[in-house]
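tokens incoming
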């Protein structure tokens, strides 16, 4: 399902739940509305797989959610949708760095919801977009080895290599542990990851990463 159709479903349910809240109606007595929320959760979990833990948690408690919690869940989905749409539009418009900043917004949104694995997924995506933009890597190359690229930049002490070294430690290593070892990141992991990414983005906002031809070729050979 495309994002536009998903948004229409979410806004329709948001309107119904808002009406319930205004009239102090308990959604738990309306099975059809609960079924619509469950359907929205299933579709959203497929569209935004990095938030799968959040959607499964809400779905497992669906019958106990009151109107306020149900509405908050739908509004959270709409927040994710808006940022995702904005990010996609900027990337397609070649404003890749701005797309990375939107991914940082998504990371912050997940962090505020205590949803820590998606926080790192979005930090990792933001890092990938930043590197593509500042190293001139085409967006058509969908997957890049960010860890290897950072290793090359650090080895040759390409600025801001100290920030890149810290990002690898605080973001990439943690994200890999989440994906491959089932690691459950802590709140302090997230705080550190967001902080180092914000610092890196701040350093690179108005400048490119300067590469010699030799270093550029070394990076491109590893793509």
């Amino acid at each position: 399902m495309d994002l536009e159709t998903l948004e229409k479903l979410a806004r329709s349910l948001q309107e119904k739940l808002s009406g319930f809240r205004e009239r102090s109606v308990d959604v738990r007595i309306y099975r059809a509305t609960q079924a619509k929320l469950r359907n929205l959760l299933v579709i959203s979990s497929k569209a935004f797989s990095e938030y799968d833990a959040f959607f499964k948690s809400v779905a497992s408690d669906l019958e106990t959610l009151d109107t306020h919690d149900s509405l908050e869940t739908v509004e959270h989905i709409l927040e994710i949708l808006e940022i995702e749409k904005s990010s996609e539009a900027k990337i397609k418009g070649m404003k890749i760095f701005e797309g990375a900043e939107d991914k940082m917004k998504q990371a912050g949104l997940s962090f505020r919801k205590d949803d820590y694995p998606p926080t790192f997924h979005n930090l990792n995506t933001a890092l990938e977009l930043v590197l593509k933009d500042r190293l001139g890597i085409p967006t058509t190359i969908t997957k890049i080895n960010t860890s290897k690229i950072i290793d090359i930049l650090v080895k040759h002490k390409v600025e801001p290599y100290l920030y890149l070294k810290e990002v690898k430690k605080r973001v990439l290593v943690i994200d890999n542990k989440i994906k491959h070892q089932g690691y459950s990141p802590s709140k302090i992991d997230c705080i550190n990851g967001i902080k180092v990414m914000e610092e890196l983005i701040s350093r690179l906002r108005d400048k490119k990463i300067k590469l010699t031809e030799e270093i550029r070729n070394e990076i491109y050979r590893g793509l």
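note: Residues 1-93 form one domain.
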